Every structure is written in structure tokens, then in C-alpha cells.
Amino acid sequence: MGRGPSIEGRKNATDAVKAKKFTKFIREITIAARAGGGDPNANPRLRLAIDKALTANMTKDTIERALKRGTGEGATEQVVEIRYEGYGPSGVAVMVDCMTDNPTRTVADVRAAFSRNGGNLGTSGSVAFQFTKTGEIIFDIRDDAALEEKILEIALENGADDVQSDDGFVDVLTTPEAYLAVKGALEKAGLTPIDSDVLMRPATRAALDGEAAAQLTKLIDRLEELDDVQDVHHNADLPT
Prior knowledge:
The chain has helices at residues 7-36, 44-55, 60-70, 103-115, 147-157, 179-188, 210-225; strands at residues 80-87, 93-100, 120-121, 131-140, 162-166, 169-174, 195-202, 206-207, 229-234, 236-237. It is of the alpha+beta class. The strands form three sheets. Strands 3-1-2-9 form a four-stranded antiparallel β-sheet. Strands 5-6-4-7 form a four-stranded antiparallel β-sheet, with helices on one face.
């Protein structure tokens, strides 16, 4: 009978995932501070990046070092932001946000991921028009349907654009600027989301199943494995 991964092996794998996630947070904090200054109260993008890092249990010292790099007080690196757009299996729209110190390497890696997984890289603007930057705060109310009214009231009172419910879940939608205020008000009221983020939300979704869904999942996984990739957005409705 074969043995599974050792405890040490599983821990090392978990640590590697955590380290990669932290690297992405550090890059985002550094870029946000460089673009809009090091004061989170005056820089919504930086405030959001720090909120994500703290939620993931990144230490304040690590956040501070990233801030200093962004404002020029620490070691600097020539990292730039690039967005790649393309099509996955069945024509699914895919956007890939990257931060890199070597765009030539990054575009080659992204193009290879698309071509090897049933997709192709498109031109700038080819799919971006299908997405809107939106704050999403999702709640599971399957065990307490009465929470829907409370979530609706608090969210709308604090600047949410819309509140949608479907099959035991409530999705609060905000502008990127209002996201942290709405999320904070909901959490202050004792309402804990199962997921929340500011992301590129598609106007419509294309349902995929079977081989096409499996192939798109492989493409997304491969893109997310790339060191220079920060986020991957798509408009597919994948089976759960």
C-alpha cells in the first residue's frame, strides 16, 4: 500500500503556497504605495492591499518593509504592472494581471499557458470591456435565512450598490472605493463573509461543463502558478 505525503512534506507544500501568496501581497503593497503614496488613509488601493495582507496574517513588520520599498525608503526593484487578455476554451474571456521585472519572460510564460491549455493570447482591450472592477462580499445564510434582511439593510446604508441573493447565499456588490467601508460595517455588526475581494466582475457568464470546464480549470491553475501572475479573471460559470 502506497504512503501519502509525510507531515513534513505537507507542511512544506503549505508553506510554499503561503510564501507565494505573501509575495503577491508584498508586490501589491509596494506598487500601490509607489503609485499613490504611503498613507493608507489617502490611498484606497494601498488600504485594500494592507487589509488583504492582514487578513492573511502577514506581520506588520513585513507590511512596513513593503511600504518603505514603495515609497523609496528601502531597496527598490523595477517591477511594472501588465495586464494580458485572451481567450480560453470555448472562447471564454480571460484576463491575467501581472507584476514583473521582466515583461519578456512574463509574456512568454503567459502565452505558453494559453496555447498549451486550449486558449490563445489576445490583444489589449480584446476582452477587458466585458469586466467591471467591483467589490464583492459574500455571505452564506443557508442556516439563518433571516440574516438576509440585516445584511441588506447594513450594506445599503453604508454605500453598497446592490445586494443579490441566490440559493442560500447573499452577494453584496460595491464600488472599489466603498468596499472597505461596507465590509467593515458588516463585520462590525457581527456578520462574517465567507469570501470578499475587489475583482474584475464579468457582465455575463458563459456556462462550461465537461472537457471544456476541465481544460479551463487547467489553464487557470497554470496561470496562477506563474510567479509573475497576481490575479486571473474569467467569465466562465464553472460547475461546483
